[in-house]
Amino acid sequence: MNLLDLSNLGALVEDLVMGDTVTISRPSGPPVLNPATGELDSAPERVVYEGPGAVLDSTAAPGITVPVAGQPYPDDPKTTYRLLTPVSAPVAARDDVVRVTHAAQDPALLGRSWRCTQPGLASTLIAVRVTWIDENNPAGNTP
Known about the structure:
mainly beta, six-stranded antiparallel β-barrel, globular
């Protein structure tokens, strides 16, 4: 069987597009009660990936986001961003947090974070990993 191998295309995309360094992290456990405030604090984050990546905004290509059944609100982000990572990167999980730690061209990416709205896409034919993300702190609310 001769399957189409897109690894060379993936390497080309990584070289030409993935100039940023991104981290993908997730909570290391369930929320923890803070006795001083009585609030639940998020568990410390665990980095699951740090390496080359690219954050693309909605102008890169159109897409469709579908609400998830059983959600208390529709998962319909107003800003449809995508994260590109190499196929060798681990698949991001829903609600993982993405941060750009080094921006090759656009310094406005630094200090912002995105939530993965669904697990990273998987496919029989794949050149790069694509993950739909939604900005946690859109314009006007930057740190």
